[in-house]
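[audit] Reproducing an earlier prediction to check determinism. Same input, same settings, fresh worker. If the tokens differ from the archived copy the diff job will pick it up downstream; this log only records the rerun itself.
[audit] input (435 residues):
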Amino acid sequence: MTFDPVTTSLPYRIAMRTARALAPLASRLDPKLADAVSARREVTERLSAFGATGRDDHRPLAWFHAPSVGEGLQARAVLDEFRSRHPNWQVAYTWFSPSAEPFGQAILADFADCLPWDVGREVDTAIASLRPQLLVFAKLDVWPELATRIREHGACAALVAGTVRPRSGRLSPVVRRLLRPGYEALEAVGAVSEEDADRLAALGVAREKITVTGDPRADSVLEAVERTSVEELPPALRDGEPTLVAGSTWPEDEDVLLDAFATVRERLPQVRLVLVPHEPTPAALARIDERAATLGLPAPVRLSALSDPSTFVVVDRVGILAALYGVATLAYVGGGFTREGLHSVLEPAAWAVPVIVGPRWQESRDAERLVLAGGARSLPAKGAAAVLQLFWREWIEKEGERAGAGQRAQELVLAERGAAARSADLLDRLLQPRA
């Protein structure tokens, strides 16, 4: 099969080579960038080693890429469906953010590592080592040099769970011009919605190559909820007391939550707050303790030390949030007061738990759908604690209203079920002419 040549522009290549050269210097001021530089220091050597000893050329290989954990949940749902249909294929999985390494390693791919820099020599090494028949990007993390060069090697490039925020920087004229070759190189795209399909077309994807398949993360979340048991939680959290589980919180969220908690307790002393910091570092936990003491709240009990029922629990480990939402009366999802972005609202929604979010929710498609359907409520930027305590009390005191909101939230997640299978169908159709 032949392709029309698609190549990146000279300005893009110069920009990426410059960024690649300056990254070690800039990383001295940015710990996250330092981690990214360190992770990529010998990635081409690891790729070459796999190509020499782990790559079975009698088996085709599918390469899935997702930038971080959230997108990884979308990619994994499609990957699992694809692998069930093609058990003979080898699988490679890459990520961009160093924080995604534990998640990526848990996928148990034949090769799992961070993505090399998107510059010619490193991209060529990756392609020559993996020798893929299929490259699948997740959400929006399309790297032009990789996407265009992989076509030159006769492989297919696709995008699943395609999502473009209305105010995404990628839609600006300059950035769009730089990235356009990567999107033009895609041969099949599964968009989450019609609106996303339109914006992907604006980025350069041929409209006839776009199919609306829905969000495969819903499949991943529903599967996780179905295999999660609240029995793994301490009995002290399963006593039926009205509980707000606040997941993936940042300090800005925690200030609002604790202020509201102090007020709610005056009228409803039995309410419980389970606070799950996004990064439960010793410093973050100490800050919560200090803030609670200032407000006259009871000292929070660490989940690892919880034995008797407590009205204030702070979670000091990761990997348990999905189960915690299973004992929630209502949920608060963090990130809506910061530029970090709102975290996923799908997990509590899948449990039929109504959700409260901060004021910065408009960039989240899931949050927007929940708010419009009445399955979630949003807080204002000013006076947030006062509004939160009103929502908190109302959803505890008005059980029917709360249950209805939770049901509407769950229905939206269930409506997306099957997106992973539809995305895998898209990949199968792309591969059929090359079978």
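[audit] rerun output stored. Observation attached for the diff report: DSSP finds 18 helices and 14 strands in the chain.
[audit] end
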